[in-house]
Amino acid sequence: MDILGIDIGTVSVKYIRCKGTPGKSIIASQGDYPYKGGFEDLELILADIRTKEGPDLYVAVGISAPDIIKKTFTIPILPKKEQKEALNWTSAKILSAPLDDMIYEHTPLGQIEEKGIIKDEFLFVGAQKGFIERILSTFQHAGFQQVALITDIAFGYVYAVGEVGDRSVAVVDIGGKKTGLYIANARKLMFAREILTASESFSDALMSGPGLTFDQAEQFKRERGFDEELTEILKIPFDRLAGEIQRTFSVYDQRYPDKPVTTVYITGRGIKIPNFFEKLEETLIEEVSYLEAIQGIEDKYIPAHTLCMNLEVLPNLLPAGAKRIEQEKCYKRYIVIGTFAIAAILFILSLGMWSKTRNADLRIKIEQQTLESIQRGYNTIGKKTSATLEAVDITFIKNEIQKKDVTLITILKYLSSQIPNDVYLKSIEFGGEIQSASPHTPSAPQPSQGPPAPPAPEQLLKKLIDNYYPLVLKGYVFGEPDNLELTLFNLILSLRQSGFIDRVEIIGKEMKQMKGKPVMEFSILARCAKHEL
């Protein structure tokens, strides 16, 4: 299922739809809507997005609003069992609303020294339950039922910077009605602040100074910016914004003297004002850079794209029930993926087994055809005298003589592929009298003791055709006492079904003890084709 990242700003709503999974996705579509504020306007925008993109999406929501509270605080270093209670107690002290009325998360930031004492520092992120539930309800009314994430857009900017190691960097998002200032260290949001001076503050200055209309002020700001004539007018809001940024960095550096801000990334509507970047770069002592977008998207879509890419790791302010539902859906996704993976593995294995079976059938068929050819050659040669032999007959006899030496090797190779794991052969005998078979042949049972005894070896040998070798296999069957007969039976079936060794009969079997374990000693009489693979 595709992921829809929605950035709800102060004057616009931006979205990006990504195909694939978080962290491994490509951009499918994007859009930007002017936003007047309020849930009614938001629902109209969301309904239009749903019409364009469809409802069957996982939605990640990032909000830029003062309703989401972000505060850092410290607690003494405590065991895990006591830490949660201390976090809630400290959070309740710094908030104006009861903690029970909020949805919140605590993010560990590491340890810090305060007045000579090492403490654990945490970031509190939370909002009133009513506000979050209203956001969730607005999305559901617009047709989106798969809301997977509600978070502060600050975290989207933190992850948009990328891996910066153990450095402190700042993102200054100069939006329409406010500027977001976010400081992060090793992808942890250490400090967040909203400044009321933003892009529209420069328009207000042009309206109050030269007396321009709003549309005229916006046009002057976009086209001329800090030119010689307008610089003095825009200087007031600019100095106010730059001063607030510098004071924020100063407070941060005092709190974290070993982690000063090294780089400032600028983004948002304000950077479109001509010469704004250059003036800010002159004002700040830190390195100033643009926040670079990836995959060729415009910089205004950076937060929405980051929501798609990092949906599963960002702080989530969904209500507990909605979180649980999303977790269950996530588990189901993993189960479905796992099922498909197992099915694919089984399919590949079945293809391998089918290929092996097919190859075995083909080899057996070729062997049977070769046996028939040899049989025809024997029959033909048997009817001829030495005077009537032809060159082709001599070639046939020569080939047969050359194959005599491989008969035993052929039998060994064949038996090694057919004998079960618990069966071990101790001898293989070809032709002649079976001298060693009689000691292992059980005495003939009484009629009341079971089925009649197998025929005597001499009677079985008479059935063998001259073009086949008499074959005697002797060995042992190991395993559980109850399974010995079944293992021997499986060996007989395997040999009989081969087409290479046939007329398989048991001529002797006897229960014995070997190293304290029960074994069955057996003798099997069969026949195999002469000199044949």
Describe the protein in words.
- It is a single chain.
- The chain has 4 domains: 1-161 and 295-318, Nucleotidyltransferase, domain 5; 164-290, Nucleotidyltransferase, domain 5, CATH 3.30.420; 338-386; 403-529, no CATH class.
- β1 and β2 form a beta hairpin.
- The chain is elongated, with a radius of gyration of 43 Å.
- The strands form 4 sheets. The chain has a 5-stranded mixed β-sheet, sandwiched between helices. Strands 11-10-9-12-13 form a 5-stranded mixed β-sheet, sandwiched between helices.
- α4 (153-160) crosses α9, α5 (199-208) packs across α6 and α5 runs antiparallel to α7.
- It has 14 helices and 17 strands.
- It is an alpha+beta fold.
- It starts with a strand and ends with a strand.
List keywords for this structure.
533 residues; 14 helices; 4 domains; alpha+beta; Nucleotidyltransferase, domain 5; five-stranded mixed β-sheet
